[in-house]
From TrEMBL:
SMART domains given in the database record: AAA (SM00382)
Keywords: ATP-binding, Cell membrane, Membrane, Nucleotide-binding, Translocase, Transport
Protein name: Unannotated protein
Key word Metal-binding present: no
Domain called ABC transporter: residue spans: 7-237
Gene3D superfamilies given in the database record: P-loop containing nucleotide triphosphate hydrolases
GO cellular component terms listed in the entry, alphabetical order: ATP-binding cassette (ABC) transporter complex
Protein's UniProt keywords contain Ribonucleoprotein: no
InterPro entries in UniProt: AAA+_ATPase, ABC_SmlMolc_Importer, ABC_transporter-like_ATP-bd, ABC_transporter-like_CS, Mo/tungstate-bd_C_term_dom, P-loop_NTPase, PotA_ATP-bd, Transp-assoc_OB_typ2
C-alpha cells in the first residue's frame, strides 16, 4: 500500500495479573484503510483497541498516531473515536443531541454543531430521525446513530469493537456493506474488531489474525484465505482438509476438491466412500471416508448417492503449506 502510515504500533504489551492479553505486537496501519483485527474471544483484540483509544495503558511498547507517540496521552487528546457494540447512547437525549454532544463538550458553536450533526445524520442515512429518542429506533438505527456520533468529530481514525455483533444476520450483512461504503466515502481509517471471519473477509482491506495476544498473520483477505501461514489461521478462516499422504502433509480447501462417481484425472486423486451430505445453503459438504482419513469436498460433478464409492480429485497447486 502506498498511503502514509497513520498508526505505528511497536512491541505493544499488556497483562492483567497472570493473563498475557497482548504480547509484543508490531503493526503499521495506513491512512484511509479498513483494517480488521480478527480472532477468537480472548485473543487480545479489544485490549489493543482500548490501548489505541487510550482507555488502557500499555505495560511496554508504543503507539504513534500521525508520527507522534500517544501511548501516555488520555483518550480526549487522541484524534480517534470509538464505536461500541452496545451503542452507549444517552437515552434521555434525542438523536440530534446525542450526535452533537461531543461537539458541545468541545465548545463548538451552535450553528456549526447543527450543520455537522445534520451532515453526519445524512452520512448514516438517518435524515429526518433527529428528533427521535434512542428507544424509538431499531437496533440497526441505533448503531447508525452511534456511528454518526463518532463521525461528527471527524477523527483521523475510527475504532469499532464488534459494532454489528448485536444485530441479526440479515441486518448485519446489510450493515457490513453500508459500513464499508461509508468508510470509502469519508476516507477515515477504520480499525474494526470482529471474531467473525466472513465479516472480516467481506469488509477489510487487510486483516490481522489474532491468537493468544499475538498477530498470527497480517494480509489482504485473499492472502489470508488462499495462503494461510499457520494451522491456526487455516482453521479459523474458512474450512481446511489436513491430509497426510505418505510422508507429505497437505492442506486443501473443500471447494477445490471435485467429487464424482467416476475417476477424474488430476494431479491428486483419492477414492473413498460417501459418508454424509450436509446441506449448508449456498454450498453442500460431502464427507468422504478415504485411506487418508475424512475429506470434505464441496464441488460435486453430478448427483451422488450416500454410501456409494466416490472419486476425489484436485489440483496440487491449490494445496498450501502451514507451519
Ligand atoms: P478479545 O477482545 O479478543 O475477546 P480481550 O482483549 O478482551 O480479548 O481480552 C484478552 C484477555 O485479557 C482475556 O483473557 C481477558 O479475559 C483478559 N482481560 C481483558 N481485560 C481485562 C481486565 N480488565 N481485567 C482482567 N483481565 C482482562
Ligand atoms: Mg473483545
Amino acid at each position: 500500500m502506498s498511503s502514509p502510515v497513520i498508526i505505528s504500533i511497536r512491541g505493544l504489551t499488556r497483562s492483567f495479573g497472570d493473563v498475557h492479553a497482548v504480547t509484543g505486537i508490531d503493526l503499521d496501519i495506513y491512512e484511509g484503510e479498513f483494517i480488521t483485527l480478527l480472532g477468537p474471544s480472548g485473543s487480545g483484540k479489544t485490549t489493543v483497541l482500548r490501548m489505541i483509544a487510550g482507555f488502557e495503558k500499555p505495560d511496554a511498547g508504543s503507539i504513534s498516531l500521525s508520527g507522534k507517540d500517544v501511548s501516555q496521552l488520555p483518550p480526549y487528546e487522541r484524534d480517534v473515536n470509538t464505536v461500541f457494540q452496545d451503542y452507549a447512547l444517552f437515552p434521555h437525549m434525542n438523536v440530534l443531541s446525542n450526535i452533537e454532544y461531543g461537539l458541545r463538550v468541545k465548545g463548538v458553536a451552535k450553528a456549526e454543531r447543527l450543520e455537522r450533526a445534520t451532515e453526519a445524520l445524512h452520512q448514516v442515512r438517518l435524515e429526518g430521525y433527529g428528533e427521535r429518542k434512542p428507544s424509538q429506533l431499531s437496533g440497526g438505527q441505533r448503531q447508525r446513530v452511534a456511528l454518526a456520533r463518532a463521525l461528527v468529530n471527524r477523527p483521523s481514525v475510527l475504532l469499532l469493537d464488534e459494532p454489528l455483533g448485536a444485530l441479526d444476520l440479515k441486518l448485519r450483512e446489510q450493515m457490513q456493506i453500508e459500513l464499508k461504503a461509508l468508510q470509502r466515502a469519508v476516507g477515515i481509517t477504520f480499525i474494526f474488531v470482529t471474531h467473525d471471519q466472513e465479516e472480516a473477509l467481506t469488509m477489510s482491506d487487510r486483516i490481522a489474525v489474532f491468537n493468544q495476544g499475538k498477530i498470527e498473520q497480517l494480509g489482504t483477505p485473499r492472502e489470508i484465505y488462499n495462503s494461510p501461514r499457520s494451522s491456526f489461521v487455516s482453521e479459523f478462516v474458512g474450512q481446511t482438509n489436513k491430509i497426510q499422504i505418505a510422508d507429505e502433509k497437505i492442506n486443501i480447501r473443500p471447494e477445490y476438491i471435485t467429487i464424482s462417481n467416476t475417476h477424474i484425472e488430476d494431479s491428486r486423486v483419492a477414492k473413498g466412500v460417501l459418508k454424509d451430505i450436509i446441506f449448508v445453503g449456498a454450498t453442500t459438504r460431502y464427507l468422504v471416508e478415504t485411506d487418508f482419513g475424512l475429506i470434505i469436498a464441496n464441488n460435486p460433478k453430478e448427483t451422488l448417492v450416500l454410501g456409494s464409492s466416490v472419486h476425489l480429485s484436485w489440483d496440487k497447486n491449490k494445496e498450501f503449506l502451514v507451519r
